[in-house]
Design goal:
By secondary structure, this protein is α/β, with parallel strands linked by helices. It is built from eight helices and nine strands.
Amino acid sequence: MDASETPSVDSKICGHDSISYWKSISPTVSGMLGGFPHLSRIDLRGSSNFLTKLRRLYDGGTAIVDSPFKRGVDCGAGIGRITTGFLSKVCEIVDVVEPVESFAQKVGSAQMMGKGKVGKVHVKGLEEWVPEEKYDLMWNQWCLGHLKDRQLTEHLKRSKGALANGGWIVVKENMSTDIGGKDIFDPLDSTVTRTDSKFKKLFEHAGLKVVRTELQPGFPKSLYPVRFYALQPADG
């Protein structure tokens, strides 16, 4: 087999294996964070700071920065850690998309459901989800590695069509540290950790532009770097 016929790294992703892995994980913060529950506070604070800087950049430092978004969506929500700790504080309503039913049920039973914070709960994978609402904020964190390149591009295209005017798609994902600049496949949970260049290539294919990007601060050096991307339609 010559180099041109070598299967791409993302071809190794198996949705069934991914779901099987997550079904074996405890529905706790520790389970969602791979045994590093103490990183949740750092993670949520980093996300809040990133969004604040993004809004100040585009809202000109006006009071609207402190006003909530009308509707957001937590893509690959797990048990709702991000919805509870962050998105519910910046959005009037948060929809969730989560393929593991036991996780999705935990989000739906949360106290904030009764407060009107959680909207629609979609029990399906992002490769199947077709947005039915318009969103001001679409948050994708530690979930896109389960999608093959083609599936990720299509998900982003559908998300672009669901953005409210002036809204943002945010991607927050691990970055590959491969010395050769390649994506890394992990058979444990059947995911791919992509390079910065691969993400930017897929964003371009989906018709999106990066309006702000930065690294998450405060994580241990022993873990993958984590990068934020704020995206908007390239023709906007």
